[in-house]
């Protein structure tokens, strides 16, 4: 009994790693020496990367390393990342509509 109590006191608990968004934000995302885009946000366990006209939601598990300027990623499903990024963009942005005079139309 005493042995169990002592072992529980010194046993390391498995802690879920917290994602620190500052490690990824405003950095270029690179894969195989090619720049994919810039990390604009971190949501859940995904990096949101502005890549041309698309938003890619790249799983954090694909991150190989980070530096002061870059986030290096390995293999990930690009089609899935593009789909998830598009869903995030649709759910978090609002389309603005303007009239012929350039005035914002209230919706």
Folded structure, characterized:
By secondary structure, the protein is α+β, with helices and mostly antiparallel strands. The chain has a single domain (17-93), classed as Ubiquitin-like (UB roll), CATH 3.10.20.840. Helices cover 22% and strands 36% of the residues. It is built from two helices and eight strands; from the N terminus they run H-E-E-E-E-E-E-H-E-E. The longest helix has 15 residues, at 78-92. The chain is elongated, with a radius of gyration of 21 Å.
Outline of the structure:
With 107 residues, the protein is α+β, with helices and mostly antiparallel strands. The protein has helices at residues 2-10, 78-92, and strands spanning 28-31, 34-43, 46-51, 54-59, 63-66, 70-73, 97-98, 104-105.
Mean pLDDT rating: 86
H/E order of the elements?
A: HEEEEEEHEE
Q: What is the CATH topology descriptor? A: Ubiquitin-like (UB roll)
Overall domain count: 1
Rg over CA atoms, rounded to whole Å, is 21 Å
Give the N-terminus to C-terminus distance in angstroms.
Answer: 68 Å
